[in-house]
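Re-run with default settings, no changes from the original entry. Doing this only to confirm the output is reproducible before filing.
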Amino acid sequence: MIKRNLLVMGLAVLLSACGFQLRGTGSTELTIKELDLSARNAYGETVTQLRQVLESSGVKVIAGAPYKLVLTDQQESQRILSYAGAGRTGEYQVTTVLNYDIRGANDLPLLSDKIEVQKIFLHDGNNLVGSDQEANTARAETRRELVQRMMLRLQQLTPAHLDQLQQTADAKAKADAQALEAAQKAEAETPRQSPVDIPQQ
């Protein structure tokens, strides 16, 4: 028994030395230390879980932070993959798509992207209660995976990268404002045509 425990401990040390980590146990250290977080459904389970994970990773989730993560839309769909005997449904696939924006100063969009997660669960026509539990478990797993993938995306955003995105957004906003001003000026300087006089009969 002692030898087996020592062997397991030895393998764990070797694996960790190689950089191996169990899923969900790795470091979620972010270079972003403050983040504003909002969602269409402000009290939804996805945004609630994400806020908890961010805070546990040392990120201050506060209004007015330099950068803002906006969960713009979350859609869930379900489809049948296969049928069991006697026409009963066998397998379902649930797909959840999360669209999000990263916004910077002046609420300018810096980055827009989406995350898609799919899970398969079994449906038994003879056990509807158990099938409902399977479906709820699959949906809960998709939410957890959405949060995990979002954290991985946020880990890749360094201050230097965000600064570069902000500069690009500022330049685009300035160019758009100048183009609008030029168009308005050209319209104001264009002489208006006087109405055509129609000779009276």
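Strands lie at 34-39, 60-61, 68-83, 89-103, 109-122. Residues 27-168 form a domain with the Double Stranded RNA Binding Domain fold (CATH 3.30.160.150).
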